[in-house]
Design a protein that fits this description.
Helix content is 40%, strand content 15%. The chain is globular, with a radius of gyration of 17 Å. The mean pLDDT is 93. It is α/β, with parallel strands linked by helices. The longest helix has 27 residues. The chain has a single domain, classed as NAD(P)-binding Rossmann-like Domain (Rossmann fold).
């Protein structure tokens, strides 16, 4: 068990975010669970019963700067430091739309959630992260964010994830002298609400792999920050 470690996870009430939360509390972390509504999280209710006092629900809308500021301030009142942050919350919009049919309000929302939200969260939480130990920042990305492997449509999601990858690389360089590990992680095609039941992998396996990266149990040789949940390099 990892003693006295603190982690913030967005989108913590379902899908990969829930499994990351569950894996983190099993490893002894206190989890600040970012959710849209603190009152409607049945999966977290069950987890709370198993791991009392290890989960602190933080209400956050990652598309809203005011909400992000309030959430980060709330975390700061609960802990003087953070050892890890996982930007997991994301939206998949306009998936099959051609360029002619794109709703640009939905494209802008995709960037707000998938790119600008993680950027603003890290900006607000850096003071707490600097005070942590063995720190790690994980931005959940996607193969869809690669130039070579992206789908022919999927403009909003793919472009917002490509931008997230670039932010991750810039952030990695910015904090490298602080000993902070920074990665954009492709989690694989998983059985979640976004991935569907036909997906070949389970989110629990991915969550375990990401926590191993955070705990530096995985040897990573990639020269860039974009990797799989097993620590393997991803193509650009």
């Amino acid at each position: 068990m990892t003693a006295d470690k603190h982690i913030f996870i967005t989108g913590a009430n379902r899908g990969l975010g829930y499994h990351l939360t569950a894996e983190a509390v099993r490893r002894g972390y206190t989890v600040y669970a970012g959710v849209r509504s603190v009152d409607s999280c049945p999966l977290l209710d069950s987890l709370d019963a198993q791991f009392p006092d290890q989960i602190r629900r933080i209400e956050i809308d990652v598309a809203d700067e005011g909400s992000i500021r309030q959430a980060c301030q709330a975390i700061g009142t609960l802990t003087p430091s953070l050892d890890a942050v996982i930007n997991n919350a994301a939206v998949l919009l306009e998936r099959e739309k051609t360029l002619e049919d794109l709703d640009f309000d939905q494209v802008r929302l995709s960037f707000a959630v998938n790119t600008f939200g993680p950027m603003y969260i890290i900006q607000q939480l850096l003071p707490l992260i600097y005070k942590g130990s063995g720190q790690a920042i994980i931005n959940i990305s996607s193969e869809a964010g690669t130039i070579v492997n992206a789908f022919s449509t999927n403009y909003a999601y793919s472009m917002s994830k490509t931008a997230l990858n670039m932010f991750t690389e810039r952030l990695r360089y910015y904090v490298k002298d602080q000993g902070i590990e920074v990665y954009a992680v492709h989690p694989g095609w998983m059985k979640t609400d976004m991935g569907g039941e036909e997906a070949p992998s389970e989110p629990l396996e991915t969550a375990s792999g990401i926590m191993n990266i955070i705990e530096r149990k995985t040897t990573i040789t990639s020269k860039i920050s974009f990797i799989t949940h097993q620590g393997k390099p991803m193509p650009l």
